[in-house]
## 1
Amino acid sequence: MTDPLAAVNAWIEANRDASLERWMAFLRFPSIGTDPAYAQETRACAEWVVAQLQEMGFTARTIDTPGQPMVVGHHPGPGGDDVPHLLYYGHYDVQPADPLALWTSPPFEPTLVQGPHGERVVARGAVDDKGQVTTFMEAFRAWIGATGSLPCKVTVFLEGEEESGSPSLDAFLEAHSEELRADVCIVSDTGMWDIDTPALTTRLRGLVYLQLDLEGPSRDLHSGMYGGAVLNPLNTLTRLCAALHHDQGQVAVPGFYDAVKPVDAKTREAWRKLDFDAHEWLSDIGLHHERGEPGFTTLERTWARPTLDINGIWGGYTGEGAKTVIASKASAKISCRLVADQDPHAIIDAIKAYVEELAPADAKLGWTVLGAEPAMAVPSDAPHTQAAARALRRVFGKEALLIGSGGSIPAVGMIKRRLGLDSVLMGFGLDDDCVHSPNEKFERRCLENGIKSHAALLAEIVRG
Ligand code: BES
Ligand code: MN
Ligand code: MN
């Protein structure tokens, strides 16, 4: 029998401009899920994806949630119940585009430009996650275009709130667990090692996100009349924030590291062999000195160690010129990346207890929990991960590296807990894609290798 993948790959080559056009059409929707001002465009984007799925023969629809609509589509595959059933998860929402002034072209007018690796598209969502979603959507199109069908059952499931921490997802999965049943979940929302070297991500960090509002005096005060004799909320908040770390960078919250296990010797050794150049990685972002918890490499710090970061801090006078004022309120956004076995709720409790203990009399603290997701590990020896490794080897002609990621994808944990499914994290992003930043881009080569990899993954999964 001839290998159907040869025909599928020929289809991909012959239709590369049409694939590019569809990706760019996807990018024109300003689907900023977190901003209510874009609710209409976000919904229109979900409906566009549904139309794409229907065009390919999927039964697809949007399903409303308290937040942004979900996209769900089903393809029966070749028929019969004994074929594998794959669930593809991704997100069609994107991060806000600001600061707009730093973009070289408008964020929602995708622009094809030349770079050192050939053509790339600059747009918000170019890689995260519309480009990556396009890699599997176009692989489906190629299989259907070249062979008339997909070789297995496929369910596509996209959300529009990933960048907001997936607030509607858990309840949705619980309510639709029957409809979303499958054998394994495939996710393309992570990175490669470099443009020539594919990777499978085996661990994601968890995330705890808190807002701390501190209130002192009942109104703003003249800093001459009151200064030096009253509690200053901004002085107090910055001292409390500073107390969250020791001088060397370790988190000072008692109990923060209690559940953290060391990286096992085998993994540690494998990571040391990865020949990661920390100085190159830093110089790409204008820095030149490694820093972080003593005793760990940069890769260990981002993949296997928990963190605490202040993400925003505000209060008082921040306008032009000087204003002598003691503001009555001050606030901070604080997030932690978590690793395996750390319980997000225990971490939240530990931070609150520590800060409350340190806070002086008259400082009234208010806490808002904006996210609490544990870390996630995916088994690297699972059969589907092995199938993905074979698919990547076929496309890239070299072995996929098993890597960690410092980022978080709440859906991966929820899908494991609610649907019982492990995920395969096969992504095609690069470190310099400017994810969440101005001038986000995705290389055309990454897109096309991604399409071929997903096409090959389908072939590898049916071969077993
Ligand atoms: N795709 C990213 C996560 C990611 C980034 C994985 C880099 C691997 C490498 C995802 O869209 C994201 O930004 N996640 C957020 C989650 C948060 C909003 C709950 C994150 O990690 O900050
Ligand atoms: Mn993403
Ligand atoms: Mn993101």
## 2
Amino acid sequence: MEVVRLGNDVLRDHAVPVEEINDEIRSLVEEMFDTMVKSDGIGLAAPQIGRSIRLFVVRADDGVKRVFINPQIIATSQEMCSYEEGCLSIPKYYDDVIRPERVTVQARNENGRRFTLEADGLLARVIQHEYDHLEGILFIDRIAPEKKAKVEEKFRKKAAKETV
Ligand code: NI
């Protein structure tokens, strides 16, 4: 599976809900975990592999593989914190992003079971980053506009080179 990069329109789409959690979705989830681990990532959202559906996978520092299908962030803490983020779709760029410290998320897993999770630390961070992907939002949208413009320009040039 190839991870799509900044500049690909699919990253900017508002992803649609998963209608049925079936074997196709379960094998997609497995492939996404494989791709994520191979790329040294800790989270991967379906739009990043070219599927504009509301699904992401996470494996944060506790090592637990978590699947979020049709997730909803139902609460966020007032306390904010800064953390350096990166994204498999924006390789080799890292920057500090301020987000709520804790989140509560509701979703279904790959078996269709609904769950509610209260997360803090790195897990809360990854969940928010991946959730953003489903809304067509990238972490560079949350940094200074002039820095974002530079990153976008760099990737535009790279993409132009690759298509020549
Ligand atoms: Ni990302």
